[in-house]
Design a protein that fits this description.
Blueprint (H helix, E strand, L loop, with lengths): L2 H12 L3 H18 L12 H15 L13
């Protein structure tokens, strides 16, 4: 969505009544809940090996062993 489109939408929403905003928010929540995956088994971020890696990193940071570095690009 372009900035122009988004700004036009905001201008339109600015004139909504309270009830219209509540209805819109309710619908957006329904859409986001339907879109958000419930089963994360196919999401590699939540794989057991990645979760274990993140937990090791958290432990290392808590133990004062963290090292600051630039973003590591992965091909």
């Amino acid at each position: 969505m372009s900035d122009v489109t988004f700004n036009a939408m905001l201008n339109e929403v600015d004139s909504f009544s309270y009830n219209q905003v509540v209805a819109l928010l309710s619908r957006l929540i329904q859409v986001l809940q339907a879109w958000t995956p419930r089963d994360r088994s196919d999401d590699l971020f939540y794989s057991p090996s990645n979760v274990a890696h993140i937990e090791r990193g958290i432990k290392a940071l808590r133990d004062g062993k963290g090292e600051e570095h630039e973003l590591i690009e992965v091909d």
